[in-house]
Amino acid sequence: MSITDITNKILTDASEKSANIIKAAEITAKEISSKTEVLKKNIENEYSQKTIHTLKENEKKIISAAEQEVKLHIDKEKRFAVDTIFKNALKKISSLSDEEYEKIILSLFKNIPNNTNGKIIIPEEKELVTKKAIRKIGFNYEIETTNNFKYGFIFSEKNTESNFSFEDILKNKKSILEVEVARILFS
Questions:
Q1: Are 152 and 167 in contact (CB under 8 A)?
Q2: CATH number of the domain at 96-186, please?
Q3: Which of 31, 71, 101, 177 has the most CB within a 10 Å radius?
Q4: Mean predicted lDDT score pLDDT of the chain
Q5: Residue 76 above 90 pLDDT?
Q6: Are 136 and 106 a contacting pair, CB within 8 Å?
Q7: DSSP codes joined into one string, the chain
Q8: Residue scoring higher pLDDT (97 or 10)
């Protein structure tokens, strides 16, 4: 074998090896490119899903906050309406004639005992009509006047005090009836 043959053989082998290396590099490059593309799509998909999830969660939070705000506003308006009804009830009581007022007082007097050592505290504003009712029912209690309430009376004996002032009766009835009044008004 001559040197030219050996050189040609080396060049041919080198050329084949070079082609094989280039081919292998191209295959590896395609695999890397393919894996990169898949990875890129996975990252984009994951990011898209996270973004959609975050947007949905934020939407839920915003809707929930808005619903709470509306509910608070509605509850505030309901409370105002119920308060107005009870204020109007007290106004109506203030416009009662003396005869109507006396009837109510007489019916309330039936809730207190007759033969004890007590006193009846009455509003100055309704002193005459209340004393008239006391005489009618035949009570002999000490009578005291006050400006602390405008309608009704307070019966006091020993360590007990029974408040029959209309303001207190309405306040107590309000806490009992406001749910029912709200149901009637807003259902």
A1: yes
A2: 3.30.2320.30
A3: 101
A4: 84
A5: no
A6: yes
A7: --HHHHHHHHHHHHHHHHHHHHHHHHHHHHHHHHHHHHHHHHHHHHHHHHHHHHHHHHHHHHHHHHHHHHHHHHHHHHHHHHHHHHHHHHHHHHT--HHHHHHHHHHHHTTS-SSSSEEEEEEGGGHHHHHHHHHHHT---EEEEESS-SSS-EEEETTEEEE--HHHHHHHHHHHHHHHHHHHHH-
A8: 97
